[in-house]
Specification:
Helix content of chain A: 40-55%
CATH superfamily of chain A: Response regulator
Strand order of the largest sheet of chain B: 2-4-5-7-6
Number of domains of chain B: 2
Shape of chain A: globular
CATH architecture of chain A: 3-Layer(aba) Sandwich
Radius of gyration of chain B: 54 Å
Oligomer: heterodimer
Strand content of chain A: 15-25%
Number of helices of chain A: 5
Chain lengths: ~120, ~475
């Protein structure tokens, strides 16, 4: 069974492109532009990996990371952000982030990180 | 005419009047003096005449010819006195009087000499001789009286004229004082008005006072207008530098904001390359269309920033408050995103339009929003409430934060130039310039704050009333 990945980013292009590329890699990918909907989905289903943006309307990436950690300690989280600050990175590390990508993201790096996170 | 010249003219007129009075008094006294001299002469004549008459009386009492000789001797002496005083008598009494006096005297003496020579007393001699002597006495007494009366008249008219002249001087003084006080008060009131306008920040209205100065106060007013023009220039420079300071803060947010569209373009390009072989033509087209959308997004962000940074001439135009508020929020939106501040925006629907210099008002709003964000480094709620005050016809913008608040000691100084609570991070000019901008728009800006609770800034801007504006414009033209 393919690994389950959830992507949440309020930039539609990021969702589309990541979903397309990662699906191409053989994963099962669900993408959300609305972080509230993404959080609902996470509460209902365990994913192997969550790729989230940091700064989003409504629920932000840090809240999603905390929620995932609390619900599913085995699920890995990768964070993308255009607002990469040291404070944000430190907070994410404390919350056991798997990887942290400042935008613009290199697809090859993301693919490698996803592969590493899913141990495949 | 300069005030100096006016004063010189007033003093010169006064001095002339006083000199004229002096000359008049001098002339009057001179006349009195010469009259007194004449009186003395007439007095002498009188006394000599009385001596003559005494001898005359003796002659008729005792019939002694020696007494008659005495009459002649004393009469000749009197004639000498009259002759030696001829100049004075001619001057004051006229040639008629002089001749009459001498003729009468000579006739009188000739009668006496006739009696002495012939030793005969003609008939009616005593009667004629006495009446001639009497006539001489009467003439001299009339003269004396007349001269005394003249002196009295001269002195009393002099006193009346002197009092009248003093009255004229006092009246003139009063007129001069009234003129200067009225004139100076009027000019000083104009100046006071202008100074007040400067203090209220209405530099432009003071600066446009152009006229050719006619007096010292006009020069002072002109200097004031020049100063206002200079201040206006400096304020424009100050506004621009403060704007650049705001831009410095905004730029970090903008740099982040650019991150998303750049990332999108990068992702599209990477996806395009790696998926090139499996992409259909339609999808490739879509990818490129997305790239275009993202580049447009980037130029919009940059244009917003450029628009704000550009120094524009002051220009009042009609605006919808929503536009002003949204444009200001757009510029600070990334500051909000970076910080942990949550923005709550309340915009009353269908707000009336305002007549403002949009870049300036936007700068005020951005100043207030940046201040509010910086007041909450740990995050908090930023409330932007835009409404309308029906009573006074003002647009009301409230910017409220939940930060540390401003202490009671600092609160009265927040609009002072160079006052800052941000240490070296702030210029202390943001609120001071905002205050100036709002004052120029005939509005008002106020602050309320409680330590530990937060701070609220309230900006009032008059609502656009086309008719009122036309009247104002007309008044400006008329001025």
């Amino acid at each position: 069974m393919p690994k389950q990945i959830l992507i949440v980013d309020d930039e539609k292009i990021v969702c589309d492109m990541a979903q397309r590329i990662l699906t191409q890699e053989g994963y099962d990918v669900e993408a959300f532009i609305d972080s509230t909907q993404a959080l609902d989905r996470i509460r209902n289903k365990q994913f192997d990996l969550v790729v989230t943006d940091l700064k989003m309307e409504n629920v932000d990436g840090m809240a999603i990371l905390k929620e995932v950690n609390q619900l599913y300690p085995d699920t890995k989280v990768i964070m993308l952000t255009a607002y990469a600050t040291l404070d944000a990175a430190i907070e994410a590390i404390r919350e056991r982030i798997f990887d942290f990508f400042p935008k613009p993201v290199k697809i090859e790096d993301l693919k490698r990180s996803v592969k590493k996170a899913l141990g495949s | 005419m300069t005030i100096r010249n006016r004063i010189i003219i007033a003093v010169a007129i006064q001095a002339t009047i006083i000199c004229l009075i002096g000359v008049f008094v001098y002339l009057s006294f001179n006349t009195v003096l010469s009259k007194l001299g004449v009186i003395e002469i007439i007095d002498d004549l009188n006394i000599s005449l009385l001596e003559v008459r005494k001898s005359e009386k003796n002659y008729f009492l005792y019939g002694d010819v020696n007494a008659l000789k005495e009459v002649v001797e004393r009469g000749e002496y009197l004639d000498n006195v009259i002759q030696s005083s001829k100049a004075d008598i001619l001057k004051t009494l006229g040639p008629g009087t002089y001749d009459t006096m001498r003729n009468n005297l000579n006739q009188y003496l000739n009668m006496a000499r006739g009696v002495i020579a012939t030793k005969k007393t003609p008939t009616k001699f005593e009667e004629d001789f006495r009446s001639l002597g009497h006539e001489l006495t009467r003439l001299s007494e009339v003269l004396l009286k007349r001269e005394r009366r003249d002196v009295n008249n001269i002195i009393s008219t002099s006193i009346t004229r002197l009092i009248a002249s003093l009255g004229v001087v006092l009246l003139f003084q009063l007129v001069v004082w009234q003129y200067f006080s009225h004139f100076l008060i009027k000019e000083l009131a104009i100046m006071g008005n202008l100074i007040q306008m400067v203090s209220q920040g209405k530099l432009h209205e003071v600066a446009k006072q152009t006229f050719s100065p006619k007096n010292e106060i006009d020069y002072a007013i002109k200097a004031l207008a020049d100063m206002a023009r200079e201040l206006e220039k400096r304020e424009a420079v100050l506004l621009q530098s403060e704007k650049l300071a705001s831009l410095g803060i905004l730029i970090s947010g903008v740099a982040h904001e650019l991150g998303n569209p750049l990332n999108n373009i990068s992702l599209i390009a990477q996806g395009y390359l790696s998926l090139y072989d499996i992409l259909e033509d339609g999808e490739k087209k879509n990818f490129m269309a997305d790239v275009l959308t993202q580049t447009e997004r980037i130029s919009r962000i940059i244009n917003n920033l450029l628009d704000f940074s550009r120094q524009k001439k002051q220009e009042l135009q009609e605006y919808e408050p929503e536009d002003l508020v949204e444009r200001s929020i757009a510029l600070v939106s990334n500051q909000i995103k970076i910080s942990n501040v949550k923005l709550h925006k309340y915009l009353q629907p269908d707000l009336p339009h305002v007549y403002v210099d949009a870049p300036q008002i936007e700068q005020v709003l951005i100043n207030l929003l940046i201040n509010a964000i910086q007041a909450m480094p740990e995050g908090g709620d930023l409330t932007l409430d835009v409404g309308q005050d029906m009573e006074n016809g003002n647009l009301i913008v409230k910017v409220k934060d939940t930060g540390a608040g401003i202490s009671k000691e600092d609160l009265p100084h927040v609009f002072d130039p160079f006052f800052t609570t941000k240490g070296t991070k702030g210029t202390g000019l943001g609120l001071s310039l905002s205050y100036g901008i709002i004052q120029q728009h005939r509005g008002d800006i106020a602050v309320e704050s409680e330590e530990g609770q937060g701070t609220t800034f309230t900006v009032k801007i008059p609502i656009y009333q086309p008719k009122e504006r036309e009247e104002d414009a007309q008044a400006d033209l008329d001025r």
